Backbone:
């Protein structure tokens, strides 16, 4: 039997909007990079590798979901950043390079904030559009 928290988490993810899932993916990658940095500082090689691997997987999934036809130059730029980050994660893991992890973390935090603002703006525009549609009826 599944515990109630796990069931709640599963349900909330399954019912989340695409925008919410995108933000959750960034939040997960950020958390995994922070955990990898912490493990590296404690010289816990196994956990460092595990968390870097998880961050890598999330970033690869973000890269795999890019729509180059719709996203154009933005999708190309994001792909370049994702490749840079996965390269840095690999470098961090092999060379025990904390700076590479910190570089990835900075990029993830910046992208997360940008997407968060874009989602909020989109939601506000949609809400305003709905109010105008109601007023015009």
Residues:
């Amino acid at each position: 039997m599944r515990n109630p928290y796990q069931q709640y988490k599963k349900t909330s993810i399954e019912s989340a909007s695409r925008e919410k899932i995108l933000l959750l993916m960034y939040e997960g990658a950020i958390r995994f990079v922070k955990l990898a940095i912490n493990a590296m500082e404690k010289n816990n090689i196994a956990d460092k590798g595990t968390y870097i691997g998880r961050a890598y997987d999330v970033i690869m999934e973000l890269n795999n979901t890019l729509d180059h036809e719709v996203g154009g130059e933005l999708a190309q730029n994001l792909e370049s950043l994702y490749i840079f980050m996965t390269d840095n994660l690999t470098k961090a893991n092999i060379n025990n390079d904390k700076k590479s992890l910190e570089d990835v973390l900075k990029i993830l935090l910046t992208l997360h904030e940008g997407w968060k603002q874009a989602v909020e703006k989109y939601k506000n525009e949609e809400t305003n559009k709905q109010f105008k549609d109601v007023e015009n009826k």
Summary: The two ends are 50 Å apart (CA to CA). The mean pLDDT is 88. The chain has one domain: 19-135.
